[in-house]
Amino acid sequence: METIRNLIDGDACDAESGSRLDVVDPATGAVYAEAPDSDAADIERAVEAARKAFPAWSETPAGERAAWLRRIADHIEGDAERFARAESIDNGKPVALARAVDIPRSVANLRFFASAVEQFASEMHQADRETINYTLRQPRGVAGLISPWNLPLYLFTWKIAPALAAGNTAVAKPSELTPMTASMLGDVCREAGLPAGVLNIVHGLGAKVGPTLTEHPRVPTISFTGGTVTGRDIAARAAPRFKKLSLELGGKNPNLVFADCDLDRAVSESVRAGFANQGEICLCGSRIFVEEAIYDTFVERYVERVKALRVGDPLEDGTDVGALVSAAHRDKVESYVELAREEGGTILAGGKRADAPNARCAGGFFFEPTVVTDLDVACRVQTEEIFGPVVTITSFRDEAQAIEYANATDYGLAATIWTENLSRAHRVAEAVDCGVQWINCWLVRDLRVPFGGMKQSGVGREGGLEALRFFTETKNVCVRVER
Ligand code: NAD
Description:
The chain is an alpha/beta fold and 483 residues long.
């Protein structure tokens, strides 16, 4: 049994109450670790440690803060294989994916914001000879950072890196379902000698520790990535306290395939967009819309490719689809497939729990990659986030209808557009209500660009300058110049 600990004021510690939570390996269904079941007392200690550390950290030159982030990145990179295995065991994702994406991207997040803060500049405005305005962007204090289970270390560092780079200290809470690599990050911070209290990591149940953090009077900044329902709760708690809030929430992303696309590429990338990380990426293109002229061909080729995906032991190379994160989540996905049948859908691939790939995984939470057609665009399966290996395919008549279908949910995170017609690509990107748009590609990420959703997919943008601006307070200083 492995033991996960909080990082508070530079110490690796249990919850003050001594209470612990079971951590389950989704591929086997077995408890393999225990994590602190923290409560308000642990959050209080963490916030106090972060508050104490803030003056010195915020006055540390940006170049030195950047050097700390690079040191932490180097430690993770030097131990990348152990991190990748840990992420795979904790989350159920294929280890090959953790190796190729999760861990390198976590390292890149830290290095990116180290460089970004060294380049961070602010504005000066001069309207006449009598006055000069300059803008200060100062760290805001203790940042509360809350992240989900689907890309555990990747999204955790995506918040920690800009918060710390900008001179804030932080209390960070990973998901209780996937606490392992956050705990390992805590070990790295201690080994690297990061000053005590700069980063505090508190494990525990969201409903138990989350509200204490989001309501805390000494935490003026909250950055949250997770579900829309949780985001609404956080927004309601933060609003009366006038906190600065960034919310990256759920998605139900349209993937629009026009008849003039490069069909080979559209098919293969749409399979990846549907089922990478078991469909558990907020950016997955789970609603595919295909122009009538190529609908039958697309569906035939798509389904053939999906049936060839290998559901397997996450620790084995060659596995395309691993285990879903928990039994509860597997049950939720299963209930949506049942609903798809009730709503009149036709299941062309998958549709049920997958057989265990081997004896080790007999108790694991596997589900077959599933393709559903013949659903109305307004039905629940087509409008609610499933966040699993379930894709719907629907035909559209023309560009106007494609846009109408794309916008037919309350979400507005990411859209993908497949067409070789340049003007159409631009027109559609402009008309679809999503904060992130890809044309003829998917999940290509430049860390400098604004990232985030519209409508119920979130408020605010992360990435590059947007993140550094979010984690700083803007002050304008107007100076009269005597002539
Ligand atoms: P979740 O909302 O259940 O949990 C996210 C985090 O919030 C966890 O750490 C959890 O412990 C914590 N939490 C739960 N209740 C809380 C409360 N009342 N107050 C404060 N914190 C609380 O989400 P999840 O199931 O972990 O993640 C899946 C969701 O995240 C999906 O909806 C997915 O689309 C979304 N997501 C969005 C993005 C994005 O960038 N927009 C990225 C990844 C995942």
